[in-house]
Write a structure and sequence with these properties.
By secondary structure, the protein is an alpha/beta fold. It has one domain: Rossmann fold. 33% of the residues lie in helices and 16% in strands. It contains 8 helices and 10 strands. Strands 1-10-9-6-2-3-5 form a 7-stranded parallel beta sheet. Strands 4-8-7 form a 3-stranded antiparallel beta sheet. Strand 2, helix 2 and strand 3 form a beta-alpha-beta unit. The relative contact order is 0.18.
């Protein structure tokens, strides 16, 4: 697990965009897993800017989103399909047919997970998975106590997650309590993982993820098992790390090594 610490969310977004851009330019047909929420917005804005100003093409890219609510249609303002269309897909040259989001309106939601797994397999697996982390350590909608060996499936959301997301729904509007999410094993099967976190409210989750025990109570701690995970965090999110100084030192040394000897070492496939 590589931990990179940045002074602010803006510099974190630029670095994460550097890494995604390198992946796409090296392998234009990359398969990329994407996340929703406020955390990756800076990354998506930076990728859109590079598409507009630096000819970064997404024409051959395929994407798989982590999750979707059960019970709201794709065109609902709070669906994750709408989120992705509004914040990324409609602003770049990606083929709509190459963007996959779990179907929250399937006749039988229990069938969606196995079908999604087959789609990922058919695409050749995920080259690069982008993640955020919840304040309780969840990744995707893998809530605390989720199986570390889980695959894409229906999950019941915790009261904390429902409360955190309630601000996006009107008081009299239906708010889903179920979601379809990639499992922890599905995430760990990605060849490369990028996890982004910024803000002091994520500091405890970051500490548990990086320095805590491997535990289903902090699903993100499963990333300790992955050989090629990069954690990008800002100073507030890093504030509770015991070894923060060491991570900065390691980052400096690794940058120097990669720059001199293996400039494409970060790329997956």
């Amino acid at each position: 697990m590589e931990v990179l610490i940045f002074p602010d969310a803006q510099s974190l977004a630029r670095k994460s965009a550097d890494l995604v851009e390198s992946q796409i330019k090296t392998f234009p047909d990359s398969v990329i897993g994407l996340a929703t929420g406020s955390t990756p917005l800076g990354l998506y804005e930076e990728l859109i800017r590079r598409y507009n100003e630096h000819d970064l093409s997404f024409a051959g890219v395929k994407t798989f989103n982590l999750d979707e609510y059960v019970g709201i249609p794709a065109n609902h303002p709070q669906s994750y399909r709408t989120f992705m269309d509004d914040n990324l897909f409609s602003k770049i040259n990606i083929e709509s047919s190459n963007t996959q989001v779990p179907d929250g309106m399937a006749g039988n939601p229990l069938d969606v997970g196995p079908a999604y797994e087959k789609m990922i397999e058919k695409a050749g697996g995920i080259d690069l998975q982008v993640l955020g982390v919840g304040t309780d350590g969840h990744i995707g909608f893998n809530e605390p106590t989720s199986s570390l060996g889980s695959i894409t499936r229906v999950k019941t959301l915790t009261k904390q997650t429902i409360e955190d997301n309630s601000r996006f729904f009107k008081p009299d509007e239906f708010q889903p309590k179920l979601a379809i999410t990639m499992g922890i094993k599905t995430i760990l099967d990605a060849r490369r993982i990028l996890l982004l976190a910024h803000g002091e409210n994520k500091a405890e989750a970051v500490k548990d993820m990086v320095e805590g025990p491997l535990s289903a109570m902090c699903p993100a701690s499963a990333l300790q098992l992955h050989q090629r995970t990069t954690i990008l965090i800002d100073e507030p999110a890093a504030s509770k790390l015991s070894l923060k100084g060491y991570y900065k030192f390691v980052g400096e040394m690794q940058d120097d090594l990669v720059r001199k000897h293996r400039p494409s070492d970060w790329i997956s496939r």
